[in-house]
Amino acid sequence: MDSQSAWLYRGEWRYVILSPGHTVFFPSGTIHFVFRVQGVQTFALGGHVLQWSGIERWLKVVIAQLKNPEITNEDMASSAPKYVQVVKRLVANRMKAGRVEEMGGRDAVARLSTLLK
């Protein structure tokens, strides 16, 4: 079991305190909270980056959020189907081009295909 799985499935939390100039990157599907010190200016940028290697994990999180809408602060019922359809097309195009290794190989693509149905 990798380090993340070891603490994630035991329900443990981890935290990082960032200092000025530090950067943090969360892979797609990482559940996170952000707290900041009151009275201190904070500059933060956010965005969504979905890597080929993270599609399966992202889909599992999306499925969990659709089944349990109280675990997210987004309206997944309206946004998730749109995202999933885009990813489905991207995966299909990648498969047609024979580029399955970039998505984790044949086994990973088979799991993705099941999740994307």
TrEMBL record:
SUPFAM superfamilies hit by this protein: Clavaminate synthase-like
Signal peptide: none
Record Gene3D superfamilies: Cupin (2.60.120.650)
Superkingdom of the source species: Eukaryota
The JmjC domain, residue ranges: 1-66
InterPro entries with a match to the protein in the record: JmjC_dom
Listed name of the protein: JmjC domain-containing protein
Record organism: Gaeumannomyces tritici (strain R3-111a-1) (Wheat and barley take-all root rot fungus)
Lineage of the species this protein comes from: Eukaryota, Fungi, Dikarya, Ascomycota, Pezizomycotina
